[in-house]
Specification:
The complex is a heterodimer of chains A (132) and B (200).
Chain A lengths: L1 H12 L3 E9 L5 E10 L5 E8 L4 E10 L2 E6 L3 E3 L4 E4 L5 E5 L3 H4 L5 E6 L4 E5 L2 E2 L2
Parallel strand pairs in A: 1-11
Antiparallel strand pairs in A: 1-2, 2-7, 2-8, 3-6, 3-9, 4-5, 4-8, 9-10
Chain B lengths: L1 H28 L17 E4 L2 E4 H4 L4 E6 L6 H16 L8 E6 L7 H11 L3 E4 L3 H10 L4 E5 L7 E6 L2 E4 L5 E5 L7 H10 L1
Parallel strand pairs in B: 3-4, 4-5
Antiparallel strand pairs in B: 1-2, 3-8, 6-7, 8-9
Classes of the chains: A mainly beta (132), B alpha/beta (200).
Chain lengths: 132, 200
């Protein structure tokens, strides 16, 4: 049993990219944000380039910053994660914007999404829905 | 002689009553929180649209009001801010919700109509007064309250555009005048103290 756990741990830590603590902000109307920590375990820079999922029609990578008291949200083509570093997607910062969530799904999100990286790797996650 | 003295006393009493009464009335209209004067040139009347019809500043008078400007496609700062407002008011006392006007104003006149804005506000609590407006109305109020907003195209996004906007709370006295504005109402106790003072 212990051996199996050790093997699992070794396998997880050997992933090129890892996703920790994913969550989705409970949607108010047909859109919301998804957040998580993405760890790059490789020695090379890697980027999150696309997100797909079944809850929303569109998944986009955005950033949100406050400049002189003004909030500015922008779409970014890719989210770069430096070698052996992690990037946190969190409110008022990087986030995955989920757009055009059908009305019938708003209260019943599956949270499933696929993250696609520049090195060809993909990670499938299930993010729980939480209040902001 | 006695009658004349009586009449004089009655007249004096009447004058005194009128004087004290009017003084009390005008004092009740004066802001209870000392303001810096910084906001004297800001604020003023406006008309926007609530789901139930037009709402103007005069409809908010009689109670302190908290105004927040945002838009319903806002990813996090608007929901965070409206949540924070409810939390701060809960902390002062749950009954406080009924003693003030919590007002959410969407600056996104292109996408947010009164129904959508109302649905958005009700997510946080039923007592939010959520307002939308025409281009002209939004330009008028944002100019009067010094709120920056700007439509920014997002060429590859399904959103089409976003709205850069000031994130700030405006506290208005029962007279409708701006008492102060705040960027942080959770960690900075000034908002709570000012609101408590207004409610005394």
């Amino acid at each position: 049993m212990k051996f199996a756990a050790l093997i699992t741990l070794l396998t997880l830590s050997s992933f090129a990219q890892e996703v920790k603590n994913p969550w989705i902000k409970k949607p108010i109307i047909g859109m919301t944000g998804a957040y998580m920590v993405i760890q790059n375990n490789t020695n090379k820079e890697v980027s999150l380039i696309r997100v797909e999922g079944e809850d929303a029609k569109h998944y986009e990578i955005h950033t949100h910053t406050k400049v002189d008291g003004v909030m500015k949200m922008r779409q970014i083509k890719e989210l770069v994660i430096n070698p052996k570093k992690s990037v946190e997607l969190k409110p008022m910062s990087y986030h995955i914007m989920m757009l055009e969530i059908p009305k019938k799904k708003i209260k019943n999100l599956s949270g499933k999404m696929k993250l696609i990286f520049s090195n060809g790797k993909t990670i499938e996650i299930t993010a729980p829905v939480k209040e902001l | 002689m006695k009658n004349q003295f009586g009449r004089l006393a009655l007249t004096l009493l009447l004058f005194l009553a009128v004087f004290l009464g009017s003084r009390y009335y005008y004092q009740s209209l004066e802001p209870k929180v000392e303001t810096s004067g910084l906001y004297d040139h800001l604020g003023g009347d406006f008309t926007l649209t609530h789901i139930s019809g037009d709402k103007s500043l005069k409809d908010l008078k009689g109670k302190p009001s908290v105004l927040y400007f945002g838009f319903t496609s806002c990813p996090d700062i608007c929901p965070l801010s409206l949540n924070k407002l409810n939390k701060v008011i809960d902390k002062i006392g749950p009954k406080t919700h009924g003693l003030i006007n919590k007002v959410f104003i969407s600056v996104d006149y292109k996408r947010d109509d009164p129904k959508k804005v109302d649905e958005y506000g009700r997510y946080f609590s039923d007592d939010f007064i959520s307002l939308a407006g025409s281009e002209e109305q939004i330009k008028d109020i944002t100019k009067k309250y010094a709120v920056h907003f700007e439509f920014v195209p997002l060429k590859d996004s399904a959103l089409g555009y976003t709205v850069d906007h000031t994130s700030r709370f405006y506290l208005l006295g029962a007279d409708g005048k701006i008492v102060n504005t705040y960027s942080d109402i959770i960690n900075d106790p000034k908002f709570t103290n000012d609101l408590k003072e207004l409610l005394k």
